[in-house]
Amino acid sequence: MNIPPIKSMAAVIYLSICFHVTIAAESKKVGEGAYGTVQLYEDPTTHKIFAKKYYRQDLESEIIKKYFAGNTLAQTLNHPGIVKIKEIVRNDPDNQGGMTVCMQYLSGETLVNIIKEPNRNKLETKIMIRNILEIISYLEKNKILHRDLKAENFVSLSPGSTSLALIDWDFATHWMRPHCIYIGTPYYMAPEIIQQQYHYYKQDNLVFNLSKSDTWSAGILIYRLVYSDFPFTHTKSLQDLYTEISKPTPFDIPTTHTNGANISEPLSFLLQKLLDKNPETRWRARTALKESEWLKLPPPREQTEYDFLLRIEFSTKEKKEIWIDPSMSVSACMDEIMLHHKIRKSHFDLYAGDVKMEPNEPLSLYIQKDEGFASVKFHRSE
Questions:
Q1: What are phi and psi of 349, to 5 degrees?
Q2: Mean pLDDT, residues 132-161 taken together
Q3: How crowded is the C-beta side of 361, counted as CA atoms within 13 Å?
Q4: What ranges do the domains of the chain cover?
Q5: What is the CATH T-level fold of the domain 9-22+106-291, as seen in this structure?
Q6: Distance between CA 185 and CA 119 in Å, rounded?
Q7: Which of 72, 57, 217 is nearest to 150 (CA)?
Q8: Which CATH code for domain 308-380?
Q9: How far apart are CA 245 and CA 259, in angstroms?
Q10: What is the pLDDT of residues 52-66, one digit of tens each?
């Protein structure tokens, strides 16, 4: 299929660069986007920190109407992986009459930065991918489309956390509502979104199934987490990109990473099902979570008579406890901590007293059983 010139391209790019800001808690930076600014706000009563998005006052009323609807929809959702919106003010006098959205402040980092990290731990990558699909599965259950899923819009809840939250709900809508043509970010657009635009120009009265377009976008995002790059990088222009995405030929999943590592068959199969160009046969997120062999996490370790209670002290002074077999390696113990407490393995070290444990050594080398308890200090990387 020949894709016609994209007449609304400037608008697409303009819409997709708004408000992708990560504000470091210690620096209190102010973010600025195409449609306004993001600032930190401290509630004078509770002293809790929130993020406030101030939209420009000169935006067209129809644009503000859509953004108000998208954020209002997000406000009704209740999931730990969806940023909590505290308040939406349509005509805020503190913003010279512009719209303001007050939301949960996320102190972590966007997936953009996480994707760039070399030698990322495979288990924590799998945990984050499951997290992404669990969020989308929740949206599917509520028949909601986010319509701008991408790395910039997933932020970890705190530094070093594997728990992610989805932000930027300006384009969100229900499945059954009329869909605005051609919304999203080019590299993440599903084939049916591009094809809908094509038939819009041809004035064909066709109804497209767009309910799985978020799943395609998630597939592109997961591809980036696995390969540390976008697919379709050989395309030289946006027009080439859309033509490549819209080709009826199946998506070609590379069998090796750019670093030479092999990609397992279960992982390759998952990507094929999420990046199926036919939305009728493409997996939904909930199907992926149920059917994918690769997404399965290690089962809970059965406690044995040799286990002892490992007391973990976080740098935040929080204390947790898990049962540990002293014959386990330090690395296996770190995996257990990561699975139980959603902490990225790259962000902590284990210490016995003042001695840093080496990953390949057995725990018993560092910890002596003492009435069934041991004390380990947790150090979060800054």
A1: -125, 155
A2: 94
A3: 12
A4: 9-22+106-291, 308-380
A5: Transferase(Phosphotransferase); domain 1 (1.10.510)
A6: 27
A7: 217
A8: 3.10.20.90
A9: 25
A10: 999 998 889 888 999
